[in-house]
Amino acid sequence: MGEHPSPGPAVAACAEAERIEELEPEAEERPPAAPEDHWKVLFDQFDPGNTGYISTCKFRSLLESQSSELDPHKREVLLALADSHADGQICYQDFVNLMSNKRSNSFRQAILQGNRRLCSKALLEEKGLNLSQRLIRHVAYETLPREIDRKWYYDSYTCCPPPWFMITVTLLEVTHPRYLKNALVYHPQLRAQAWRYLTYIFMHAGIEHLGLNAVLQLLVGVPLEMVHGATRIALVYVAGVVAGSLAVSVADMTAPVVGSSGGVYALVSAHLANIVMNWSGMKCQFKLLRMAVALICMSMEFGRAVWLRFHPSAYPPCPHPSFVAHLGGVAVGITLGVVILRNYEQRLQGQSLWWIFVAMYTVFVLFAVFWNIFAYTLLDLKLPPPP
Prior knowledge:
Blueprint lengths: L8 H15 L11 H12 L6 E3 H10 L6 H13 L4 E3 H8 L5 H9 L17 H13 L3 H10 L7 H11 L21 H4 L7 H45 L9 H17 L9 H24 L13 H19 L9 H28 L8
Antiparallel strand pairs: 1-2
């Protein structure tokens, strides 16, 4: 067997080059530079001594130089933040957070001061907006009391994720028309089945009951979720629902519960209380008329619930559903709900009032649980038969 001829120098060099290219990552596979690197280069231009701080005056100059890359509204917000720094300096991390569209602690602190004035025209005066932009602007003015918050929300909202929670809950409620014929309704005889304290929202006492709750959920809940997010709105809604059924088990012990009024009233009362507390800052059109209409609708629905409780029921075999769940929802709305809606995109864990209301809610839930365990036996109540 003959020996293979050795490759020539040119062939060997080419093979070696190919082997080296295989070991090296492709140019397009190399990780892109982090966004912070771009801002770091800019920051260093205004911080030649590498102190980690730049003056607010230099920060304003930097914003002027980057005006073509920044949305005009965001630029206004950043300028207002620069004016709010009492020490006259901005650190590098705050600078990166701001330019990367993140709300830093210093920005939150500036929002809490609430005494800045934006220099240019209000968002409401913007012209040439398309339908989607006008909707976002409308939601901002319906729910937020400060112009700087409204502009920040208008610039940063992307509809990702969409307001899925309230829409999903409403659809699930509409697709369960059978009243009291399943294992979802809260009933005092079946109070040991813990899921009923929550799932009763999917049953309603008639189409008019379902219709009004669904309309209020969509008209009030969806805009609130667009601003505050699904987590916060779900927290208020579910807390109102659970508080409603527990309040019935304590204050109206012989009655069943149906309907989502506990959660709906928690959202609506929190929103109305937030408008009242920030009356001068709220710029929603016809706010007095809108509040009056909302209160009238809530009063009519509550009056109907009271009538069903004390008059012969048209929905046997489980008559007289309770109205106390409405009051439980209102209590949650004007406590937990107000704190959550007032602190737009700010951490609730650092709010003392938040912890006070959480403690109050926890104490109420624990009291209601023990009440359900012992009070019904001790009082020897005559309860209606289960459905």
